[in-house]
Amino acid sequence: MKPLLTTSGLSRRFGGLRAVDDVDFTLMPGEIRGIIGPNGAGKTTFVSLLCGRILPSTGTVMFDGADITGLPAFRRVRRGIAYTFQITSVFAKLSAYDNVALPVQRRLSDSRSTASIRSGVMGALERTGLADRASMPAGELAYGHQRLLEVAMGLALKPRLLILDEPTQGLSDGEIENFIDLVRDIARDATVLIIEHNMPVVMQLAGRITVFDAGRILAEGTPHEIRADLRVQDAYLGTQHG
Ligand SMILES: Nc1ncnc2c1ncn2[C@@H]1O[C@H](COP(=O)(O)OP(=O)(O)OP(=O)(O)O)[C@@H](O)[C@H]1O
Questions:
Q1: Among 26, 42, 100, 135, which residue carries the largest CB count within 10 Å?
Q2: 135 in helix, strand or coil?
């Protein structure tokens, strides 16, 4: 099986800071991959390089066999990379429905029938548990629900790769349970890359976990391997051992 996405020597500097430092990374189709690491480790910068929000200082990004390193974000979206970043794409004054209608219209650019737009929007809102809030202005949704709305907007694109940056922040325990089911459902026909600080969530969901520290990959493995890794415990999990 060929990788869906690879990076080689991927780096991004901000002034003298190496936020992402020479990262070689491989993601296989169908994976749910977790990304963890301490604050400032470079996780958000790394996935921003994958989706084209920022460009690398050096290195390459390959997606589905093609070099996408220099492509702008909207062209990566067209190739099937969708991402959600801490409510940066939600329009507060538009309803939840209208927010999701934007990416649905983009996907259905050939056949814009009202019925197909409606079914695309409501499908994404139902999957994320937001259907009964469809007419609420997005800015009036609870914080966690705005995060889910971003996921709905990503899903509406029917992506091949969905990148989620801390999607469970602000969700209640019950909502997190639903979210775990949702991600498993999404992973039946998409690859998922998820930055997540909530360890039980990432341990339950991810097939493999990549640990970032100071811009580099510190460790990679199954949840079991990562939990047992002493370097990870030192850098991040804060577990006492000795
Ligand atoms: N636009 C920017 N300009 C300057 N420095 C930046 C910029 N974006 C990120 N950084 C710095 O790069 C480093 C990595 O940040 P990044 O947000 O990628 O880490 P992170 O692992 O996602 O952290 P967190 O878990 O806190 O979200 C940090 O030191 C951060 O301050």
A1: 100
A2: coil
Q: With a 6 A CB cut-off, is 16 part of the ligand 1 pocket?
A: no
Residue type, 18: R
Q: Are 149 and 70 in contact (CB under 8 A)?
A: no
Nearest CA to ligand 1 atom 31: 40
36 lines ligand 1 (CB under 6 A): no
Cβ pair 161, 80 in contact under 8 A: yes
First to last CA, the chain: 40
Å from CA of 148 to ligand 1 middle: 23
List beta partners, residue 36. Answer: 211
Q: Are the beta carbons of 212 and 35 closer than 8 angstroms?
A: yes
Kindly report the pTM of this predicted structure. Answer: 0.90
Q: Which atom of ligand 1 is nearest to the CA of 42?
A: 18
H or E stretch at 196: none
Amino acid at 141: L
Question: 1-80+159-242, what's its fold?
Answer: Rossmann fold (3.40.50)
With tokens 């097939």, the residue in question is 207
Could you tell me if 193 and 163 are in contact, meaning their C-beta atoms sit under 8 angstroms apart?
yes
Instruction: For this complex, say whether ipTM is above 0.90.
Output: yes
Going by their DSSP bridges, the two strands 58-63 and 5-14 should be labelled as: antiparallel
Beta bridge partners of 9: none
CA distances from 63 to 3, 49, 189, 225, 232 (A): 8, 12, 17, 27, 28
With a cut of 60, say whether residue 240 has pLDDT above it: no
Span 154-170, pLDDT tens digits:
888 889 999 999 888 88
